[in-house]
Structures are given as C-alpha cells and as structure tokens.
C-alpha cells in the first residue's frame, strides 16, 4: 500500500501566533512601526564656494550642483533652510593656489565671506566649514610638503588658523578632514585660544582613501598633482583602525565623529554607534550620489527610491547626521511626497 500523504503544516503549528506580515499589510501599518525615520533637520548639504558675485559654475560630474559665489551661496542656504534642512557644509575654492595653502585662513576668502553672507541672510540652520588645505594647495595634497612627503606637524598650525578664521566668520562647526594626526587637538587649542570655546568640532575620523571622491575633486580642483592620499587617508580594508581613530578624536575634543564614505562604512558606523556616546555623522560622498544619478538617468533604477533607501540605510546603521548632496531632494520627498 502507498504511504499516506502527510497533512500540510499550518503557519500556526510551525511558528505559533507569530506573523510578521501582519504589520506590513498596508502603508499606514508600515509607517506606524517604522524603526528608522529620516528627517531633513538631520541633514547637511555641502556647498562649494568661489569668489566674486553672481557666479555660478556647473559641475559636470555632479548634476544639479554648481560652484557658487558667496551671494548665491547665501540664497541657496536660505532656500535649503526653508525646506527644513539642518545645515550646510562649506568648501572653498580660491582664485589662486600656492604650496602652503594659506588661502584657507584668509578672512576674506570664499568660505569666511560666505559664512558672513549666510548669517546676514538669516538662514536658520547650522553653519559648518570644512577644514583642509587640498582645495588651496597648488599640489592638491591636504598638508604641507617636505619634498614629496606630507609634513604632518607643519600642517597642524595651518589647519588651526583656518578653523579660527571660519569661527571668526560665524561657523558653528569646523570639520577637519585632512587626516593629520593630532588635527582635532590642534583645532581645539587654536579655537579656545582665539575665544571660540563654543565652536564645535566635527571630526572626519573614519575617512578612507576611496575611489568615490572623484566628482568632489573635480568640483574643488583638488586632485593631487602627484601620488595619492593613501599615506594619510585610511586603508579601505581597515575597520579596527577606524574605531581607534575615533577614540583618539574623542580624547582630543571632537564633539561629532564622522565616517566617510557612508555606504562603504556602514559596518564601522554600526560599531561606532555601539562604542561611542557622541553624535555620529556619515558623509554620502560625491561618488555615491553620482552613481545614483548615472543609473537613474539610464532608467536602471528609480532615483527617488534609491536615494531614500540609501539614506535610510545610513541612518539605520547609526548616523545621527547625514551629509548628502541629495539633501534638497530628500527634504522635498520627505515633506511633500
């Protein structure tokens, strides 16, 4: 005789009353129990600033973005603030560059001028300024050269001078990105000595050497004239080193820790969230944005859904703050659908 067929198992007999799909049944339920929620108030939009007035220079590799003179940067910042975006991060591109990058601390340079203009425009948002020399040096490296090597300790005073210039002009946050050893301590000492003890430091602590910075380097004109930045930016393979860098930066006085690039650092971001009790930022860098834009332009992905998905993953991994070139669009989608 043939063997009797087994009775089909019910979900209840296998998993009791647990049915996770109950809370996925419609949009209202999914929204109600959503664990990670994006907010424009937790986003920072980068702005590239050049000198002059009424100047706008489109950036070919960054669709929809341009280098802006301080007056246009102020108008753009006010528009971003009206959309609820929490802050802007300014990068300066000077008219002339020289080996020491001393233009970074020029009080009349693009970033200090833009900071003052944005303050005068009444934009209700956090003003942050990147602190590095790569946009200002004729060789494109982030520090002072000793032959073909970067002189770490000779670079620190120049970074501190730039931070003080930005704080003088009204920056709430200065963000050292040169990846020099001791840069946070140097900035903290310089700011405190200059009477800016309330100016916060957002440290680029976990900044890996990455292929995803290409569009930024076009925008800032900061491609190194020789070699690369692997002697000071971290090896992309190293995660424990990133946590060590974060620990050092907290000890030196960092108020916010940053990981960069965001999507290739989600594991580090999650580990940092479990380790440090300070705000964490993640920088969705230019190459990440460019990949979304390029694929969407070819119809390979849905631009809106891809941008929201990537940003949600960054927040889910532990970021309190997301620095993204898509901030304006994200704010629109989150508030207006």
Short description:
The protein has helices at 11-15, 27-32, 70-82, 110-121, 152-168, 183-193, 214-220, 240-252, 266-275, 286-297, 303-317, 327-336, and strands at 43-49, 56-58, 66-68, 87-92, 126-131, 144-146, 149-151, 173-176, 200-207, 256-260, 280-284, 321-324.
Task: Write structural notes for this entry.
By secondary structure, the chain is an alpha/beta fold. It is built from twelve helices and twelve strands. It has a single domain (37-336), classed as TIM Barrel. Helix content is 39%, strand content 17%. 47% of the residues are buried. The model has no long low-confidence stretch (mean pLDDT 93).
Helix content: 25-40%
CATH C-level class is Alpha Beta
| Strand portion | 15-25%
Average predicted local confidence, pLDDT = 93
Could you name the ranges where pLDDT drops below 50 across 5 or more consecutive residues? none
> SSE order, as H and E?
HHEEEHEHEEEHEHEHHEHEHHEH
**Mind describing the biggest β-sheet?**
8 strands, parallel, barrel
Outline: globular
Please give the count of helices. Answer: 12
Task: Tell me the total number of β-strands.
Answer: 12
Query: What's the domain count?
Result: 1
Oligomer class:
single chain
CATH superfamily, by name, is Aldolase class I
Structural class: alpha/beta
For this structure, the CATH topology is TIM Barrel
CA-atom Rg in angstroms: 23 Å
CATH architecture: Alpha-Beta Barrel
- Major sheet strand order: 1-4-5-8-9-10-11-12
Distance between the termini: 63 Å
């Amino acid at each position: 005789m043939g063997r009797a067929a087994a009775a089909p198992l019910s979900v209840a007999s296998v998993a009791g009353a647990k049915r996770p799909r109950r809370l996925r049944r419609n949009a209202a339920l999914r929204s109600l129990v959503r664990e990670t929620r994006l907010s424009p108030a937790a986003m920072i939009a980068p702005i590239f600033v050049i000198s002059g007035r009424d100047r706008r220079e489109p950036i070919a590799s960054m669709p929809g973005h341009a280098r802006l003179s301080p007056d246009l940067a102020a108008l753009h910042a006010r528009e971003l603030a009206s959309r609820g975006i929490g802050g802007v991060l300014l990068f300066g591109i000077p008219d002339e560059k020289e080996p020491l990058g001393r233009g970074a601390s020029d009080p009349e340079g693009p970033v200090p001028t833009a900071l003052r203009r944005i303050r005068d425009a009444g934009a209700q948002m956090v003003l942050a300024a990147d602190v590095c020399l790569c946009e200002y040096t004729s060789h494109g490296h982030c520090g002072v050269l000793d032959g073909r090597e970067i002189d770490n300790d000779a670079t620190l005073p120049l970074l501190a001078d730039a931070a003080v210039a930005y704080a003088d002009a009204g920056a709430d946050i200065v963000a050292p990105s040169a990846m020099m050893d001791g840069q946070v301590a140097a900035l903290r000492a310089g700011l405190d000595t200059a009477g800016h003890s309330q100016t916060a430091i957002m440290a680029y602590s976990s900044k890996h050497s990455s292929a995803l910075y290409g569009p930024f380097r076009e925008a800032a004109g900061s491609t190194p004239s020789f070699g690369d930045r692997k002697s000071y930016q971290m090896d992309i393979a190293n995660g424990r080193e990133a946590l060590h860098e974060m620990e050092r930066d907290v000890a030196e006085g960092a108020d916010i820790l940053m990981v960069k690039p965001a999507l290739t650092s989600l594991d580090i971001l999650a580990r940092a969230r479990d380790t440090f009790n300070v705000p964490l930022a993640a920088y969705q860098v230019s190459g990440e944005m460019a990949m979304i834009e390029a694929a969407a332009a070819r119809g390979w992905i849905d631009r809106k859904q891809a941008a929201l998905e990537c940003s949600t993953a960054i927040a889910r991994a532990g970021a309190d703050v997301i620095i993204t070139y898509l901030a304006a669009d994200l704010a629109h989608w989150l508030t207006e659908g």
